[in-house]
Every structure is written in C-alpha cells, then in structure tokens.
Design goal:
26% of the residues lie in helices and 31% in strands. By secondary structure, it is an alpha+beta fold. It has two domains: 224 residues, Rossmann fold (3-Layer(aba) Sandwich); 144 residues, no CATH class. The strands form four sheets. The protein has a six-stranded mixed sheet, sandwiched between helices. Strands 13-12-11-14-20 form a five-stranded antiparallel sheet. The structure holds adenosine-5'-triphosphate.
C-alpha cells in the first residue's frame, strides 16, 4: 500500500490543448478516491498520468513518497482495470487471472495459491475453467478485478470499469467493488462520469471540470457544502434547483426575493452563512435541493414565510416518492456543463421561468394543474455568487 500525491500536475497535449491544469490531489494510503466529472474533463488523462501511460507535462507525481514521473508503467507497482476488461478470450479464467504472475515467472505453487485466493474473494471458484465468452458481464468484470488484485499492487487504477454493464448489474458491481476494496485495502483511484457511482463508492470524491479540480471531499460534504455552482449542480440526483434571487432585509433578518415571491432566511442559516449579509441588495444564485421541498398539505407547523405558491405542471409518481414540477417566475441559473445539457435544453431553460422539481412524500394528493402551497426548508438553502460561482458562506 502507498499514498499517491499529485502536485501541480499539468498535461498539455502536443496540439497545445491543456487537459489538466495545476492539479493538487492526495490519495491517502488505503483510500478509495473517485474522480468524477463530465465527459472530456480530464479524468482519464489524470489516471493515465498516474499509470505512466501519458507523459506528465509538468508537476510531480509521487507514489509511496517516491517521485515516479519518468518511471515505466510496469515499475510503478500499480494495477489497472479498464472499461472493456481486456480479457484474453482464448484463455480460461484461471489463466487470465494468472497472466501477470506467469509473465513475472512466479513459482507455479505461488501462482496457484494467489489465483485461488483471488477467486475465493471474488466468488469465481467455480468458473476457473471457463472462458470469458461463457461468463456473464458481471463475472467478466470480476475476472478483470481478479487480474488486478492477484498482483497485490500498491495502487489500483480503475477507468469507468462499470460503463459496459446494464443498469442493474452496475448497482450490484458498485457494492462488490467497494467491498472488495475494503477487504484488500489497496489505495484506489477510480474515474467515472457518473456522480451516483462516485457518491456511493468513494471515501472521498474529487470533482473535476475542464481540467480544473473543483472540490475534494467526502460524499456527504460535497452534497451538503458544495464549494461552487458547478459542484452544486453536478452532485445530487435529481439535481439541485438553482435560480436567481435578490437578497433583501426584512425586519431583523434577511429574505430572498424569488421572482414575485419571498422566502425568509432563518436566523440559524444566517449564523452559518454570515457572508450573505454582504450581498444585501444584490442578486445571487439560490440553490434548493428537491428534498428540501414538501407538499405543504402534508406538514404541520411549517413557518408561513418559508412557503411558495405554485401551480403543478407535471408529476412523476415513483411509488416511494412523487417528483412534482412547477414553474417560478424567477430566472433560472443554468449550470450547462454540470448537467451536460444540449444546446436545445439550454435555450429552453433560458427562455422560460425557473422549472423547479421537488420531491414530495408519496401520500401527496397533488395532480398536474393544481395550485398548491409548497413548504421550503430554507434551513438547507445554498447561496452562490453569480459572478464567481463560489458559495457564499463565511
Ligand atoms: P471521457 O470520459 O469522455 O473520456 P475524460 O474526462 O476522461 O472524458 P480525457 O480523456 O482525459 O477526458 O480528455 C480530456 C480532454 O483532452 C478532452 O477534451 C480530449 O478531447 C482531450 N484529449 C485527450 N487525448 C488527447 C490527445 N492525445 N491529444 C489532444 N487532446 C486530447
């Protein structure tokens, strides 16, 4: 096991394109760190620099305290798992898993012992004689993992290893890989474009956008304290509602003017976000997660100044919850890259008022067309500076 330290790492391709800029990141010993970001943000480039498959333009890469910038991939003591698994179709499972050990000319008895141990951990004991073509997608994925763990590397590198699996299997493999990583305890760097995968698997998540690291934190911290609009919009499913609001003073406290309606900022929130006072009179982005809305008919004692009137346009009844959509006459804040919106979707969103999606308890009776009152947990509201995109906190 070893930690991996990226210091001021840069990657500029020969055509002058800078794929990774001044990246500082530490993957602690034994940690499962997931790098997530939209397509083309530089995740694979980062992983390939750690693997030694891509030259580092500038900066320093250390594995276990040793600078490895120019070390050949095979000497870095890492194991990689790719999207397509790269299994040898003509070899059986045993030989696929044993491949690197045979290449390293390990004694036959040791190879057998290590492959059997990997097969036991991965529950592949009964598949060792089969060829990859005879296995299910999930089993093939496990063989690819087997090939990585049998080498007992100091670092695992995984590049979108689940993207070829169907949705159900992906969920199952998420849990399997996380469990396996805990069991073997190897420092792991995993890249994906899927924020749910990142949030459910990682000890810490590194969010990257256009080659620039946005935030590195635990999944809960990212969700509850996003540092900027990009992270706020990218992390969370369904995504955060972001719209413009004017900060105003009201009595002793503050209120948000959201189009023609107002939402009070509770005293306790202002204590946690004192910087909001400095934005008095200006327009900011207010972020409200779908979970922070409720059909007001289902709650009692919700403050009158933390409610919105809305007309429901559409609902999705999912059984365990109802997603209700309604429009507000406030300007939406479009985090286009974060949500990977198409040009059409952006144009749509810019034309209309803010389309809000809210999660209601399944007992709600709301129907499309209903005029309702929505309770908003302003306690959990987020605020961002519209110019810098940064969170307004303290
Ligand atoms: P994806 O999941 O789509 O692969 P990614 O975040 O892994 O996205 P990278 O593969 O790291 O992205 O690519 C980052 C950027 O660098 C992209 O804009 C890509 O077009 C560009 N890029 C990648 N390889 C090269 C290359 N050899 N020469 C020039 N540009 C490249």
């Amino acid at each position: 096991m070893a930690d991996v330290v990226l210091e001021e790492l840069n990657k500029e391709y020969s055509n002058g394109f800078r794929a990774v800029s001044d990246l500082n990141l530490q993957i602690n010993e034994g940690e499962f760190l997931v790098m997530v970001g939209p397509s083309g943000c530089g995740k694979s480039t980062t992983l390939r620099m750690i693997a030694g498959l891509e030259d580092i333009t500038s900066g320093e890469l250390r594995i276990g305290g040793r600078v490895v910038n120019t070390l050949a991939p095979k000497d870095r003591d890492i194991a990689m798992v790719f999207q397509n698994y790269a299994l040898y179709p003509h070899m059986n499972v045993f030989d696929n898993i044993a491949f690197s050990l045979k290449l390293a000319q390990r004694p036959r008895a040791e190879i057998k012992e290590r492959v059997n141990e990997a097969a036991r951990i991965l529950e592949l004991e009964n598949q060792l004689d089969k060829r990859p073509g005879q296995l299910s997608g999930g089993q093939r994925q496990r063989v690819a993992m087997g090939r990585a763990i049998v080498r007992r590397p100091r670092v695992f590198l995984l590049d979108e290893p689940l993207s070829n699996l169907d949705a159900k299997l992906r969920v199952q493999m998420r849990a399997e890989i996380t469990e396996l990583q805990r069991q073997v305890g190897v420092t792991t760097f995993y890249v994906t474009h899927d924020q749910v995968e990142a949030m459910t698997m990682a000890d810490r998540v590194a969010v990257i956008h256009q080659g620039i690291l946005q935030q590195v934190d635990s999944p809960m911290k990212l969700f509850n304290e996003p540092d900027n609009i990009f992270v706020a919009a990218f992390i969370g499913s369904p995504s955060m509602n972001l719209m413009e609001a004017v900060v105003q003073r009201r009595d002793s406290g503050l209120t948000m003017q959201l189009g023609s309606q107002q939402l009070a900022v509770p005293e306790s929130l202002l204590t946690r976000r004192p910087a909001l006072e400095g934005h008095l009179g200006s327009t900011v982005a207010v972020g409200l997660r779908p979970k922070d809305f409720e059909d007001a008919a289902l709650v009692t004692d919700h403050p009158a100044d933390q409610r919105l009137r809305a007309q429901v346009t559409h609902i999705e009844a999912l059984g365990y919850e109802v997603i209700a959509y309604f429009d507000l006459d406030a300007k939406p804040v479009i985090a286009r890259e974060a949500l990977e919106l198409t040009e059409d979707q952006v144009a749509d969103a810019e034309r209309s008022s803010a389309r809000v999606h809210a999660r209601f308890r399944p007992t709600t009776a709301v129907r499309p067309g209903d005029s309702i009152e929505v309770a908003v947990s302003m306690e959990n509201a987020h605020f961002f500076d519209l110019e810098t995109g940064l969170a307004i906190r303290d």
